[in-house]
């Protein structure tokens, strides 16, 4: 490895480190700084900006933010709250299941923010450390992105895999089943290996003595807005329309042929149409949509994907030949190594969709996967869940939110960066999902 490559790696990691230290939208800013240094100082050609990913995220956020302003998101959260409170003994299973389902429907893991106080409250009422259900829910919300029909990651991957012989319903079926089962098996394992007795936790006892722990009780209050249920109905019908249209234009089904409106354009237009209908029929004031938490966090995500993914693509494109050679050999010898590549890339790129877009073309070329030779494409299907390792560095918004909302102090980030409450549940969930993915995907080869 010559000095130039070392400098390029240092700039890549340095920009990511600066972004993580600054936090929030600054992660995307720092990505742009890294591209600038790589280009002007180290002579690397800027990589491609993942505009399709960014635009799909923006369209989804536009629709979800309109639904939130109409009261729809609060309505969905209140329904979920009732389920959690009605079955408190099963909090370790219901919390990740609800987080996973909300993410599947909404296409964003940020929906779990509103559930966090409920999870903490219910866990305390059962003398269970809130760190267990909270960590499981956050991890489930991240991996749920790889099974959501309206997420940019699924849209991209299905678009890549369909020309290789995979039909859309099969892909969605594999990813939904493997991620859900992985979340539930992880909940079972974590519940077995983790001491859950809250009353015996020393940090909790200390915080209880000084009055930092609130009594378990109702957290969420409020009445549904007039257009809440209608907005949810419009959004869910849009999700159904996305699934049906993507199925209809699938290369193996061809209910619609020729395809005039391609998948990406269709999904973006469906989502913007949903936003229009919600704004119009639910009498939402457009100016207030910009103030919703979903819009703010979603636009932050767009900037982060813009900067960090651009930085990652710049580095990958500059060393594409070497990466193809090494990655190709590793994956040929051990297919599961693709999951490892996805895992570490997503840890740095901070986005499931951006990770898939950066790594998948390299792997396809390295393995010689094509419409004439699609056999190895099952590896991509099986390992897709591994792009969800956003939990590794404890700086992701939902991780930080969980830590802040757990007043018992059991959900924490350790001194050594990786020893935090989310690491073991996250690694377990991805490992199980990938293993199940190989079993199911191999049946369709």
Strand content: under 5%
What's the order of the H and E elements?
HHHHHHHHHHHHHHHHHHHH
What separation lies between the terminal Cα atoms? 39 Å
Protein structure class: mainly alpha
Net shape: globular
What is the helix content? 55-70%
* Number of distinct helices: 20
Q: Over the alpha carbons, how many angstroms does the gyration radius reach? A: 22 Å
Outline the biggest β-sheet: none
Low-pLDDT runs: none
The total strand number stands at: 0
Mean pLDDT: 84
Descriptive overview:
This protein is mainly alpha-helical and 445 residues long. The chain has helices at residues 3-22, 26-40, 51-69, 72-86, 91-106, 116-125, 131-143, 152-161, 168-193, 202-209, 228-248, 263-281, 286-289, 293-318, 320-333, 337-349, 352-367, 378-383, 397-405, 423-442. Helix 1 (3-22) runs antiparallel to helix 14 (293-318) and helix 7 (131-143) runs antiparallel to helix 9 (168-193). It is globular, with a radius of gyration of 22 Å. The mean pLDDT is 84.
Salient structural properties:
445 residues; mainly alpha; 67% helix; 0% strand
């Amino acid at each position: 490895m010559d000095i130039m490559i070392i400098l390029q790696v240092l700039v890549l990691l340095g920009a990511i480190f600066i972004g993580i230290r600054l936090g929030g939208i600054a992660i995307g800013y720092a990505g742009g700084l890294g591209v600038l240094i790589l280009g002007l100082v180290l002579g690397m050609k800027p990589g491609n900006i993942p505009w399709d990913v960014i635009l799909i995220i923006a369209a989804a956020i536009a629709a979800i933010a309109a639904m939130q302003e109409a009261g729809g998101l609060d309505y969905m959260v209140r329904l979920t709250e009732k389920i959690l409170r009605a079955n408190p003994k099963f909090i370790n299973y219901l919390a990740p299941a609800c987080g996973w389902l909300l993410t599947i429907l909404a296409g964003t893991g940020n929906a779990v923010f509103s559930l966090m106080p409920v999870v903490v409250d219910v866990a305390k009422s059962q003398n269970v450390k809130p760190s267990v259900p909270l960590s499981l829910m956050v991890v489930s919300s991240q991996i749920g992105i790889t099974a959501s029909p309206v997420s940019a990651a699924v849209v991209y991957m299905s678009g890549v895999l369909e020309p290789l012989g995979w039909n859309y319903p099969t892909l969605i079926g594999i990813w939904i089943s493997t991620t859900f089962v992985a979340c539930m098996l992880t909940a079972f394992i974590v519940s077995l290996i983790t001491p859950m007795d809250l009353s015996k936790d020393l940090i909790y006892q200390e915080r209880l003595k000084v009055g930092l722990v609130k009594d378990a009780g109702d957290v969420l209050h409020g009445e549904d807005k007039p257009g809440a249920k209608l907005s949810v109905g419009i959004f869910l019908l849009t999700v159904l329309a996305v699934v049906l249209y993507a199925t209809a234009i699938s290369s193996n089904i061809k209910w619609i042929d020729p395809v005039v409106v391609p998948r990406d354009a269709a999904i973006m237009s469906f989502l913007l149409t949903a936003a229009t209908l919600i704004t119009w029929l639910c009498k939402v004031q457009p100016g207030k949509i910009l103030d919703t938490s979903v819009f703010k966090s979603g636009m932050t995500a767009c900037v982060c994907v813009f900067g960090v993914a651009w930085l990652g693509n710049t580095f990958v494109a500059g060393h594409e030949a070497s990466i193809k050679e090494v990655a190709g050999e590793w994956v040929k010898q051990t297919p599961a190594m693709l999951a490892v590549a996805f895992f570490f890339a997503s840890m740095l790129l901070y986005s499931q969709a951006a990770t898939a877009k950066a790594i998948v073309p390299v792997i396809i070329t390295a393995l010689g996967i094509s419409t004439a030779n699609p056999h190895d494409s099952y590896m991509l299907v099986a390992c897709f869940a591994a792009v969800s390792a956003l939990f590794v560095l404890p700086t992701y918004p939902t991780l930080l939110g969980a830590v802040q909302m757990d007043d018992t102090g059991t959900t924490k980030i350790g001194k050594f960066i990786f020893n935090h409450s989310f690491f073991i549940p996250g690694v377990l969930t991805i490992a199980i999902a990938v293993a199940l993915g190989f079993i199911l995907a191999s049946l369709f080869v």
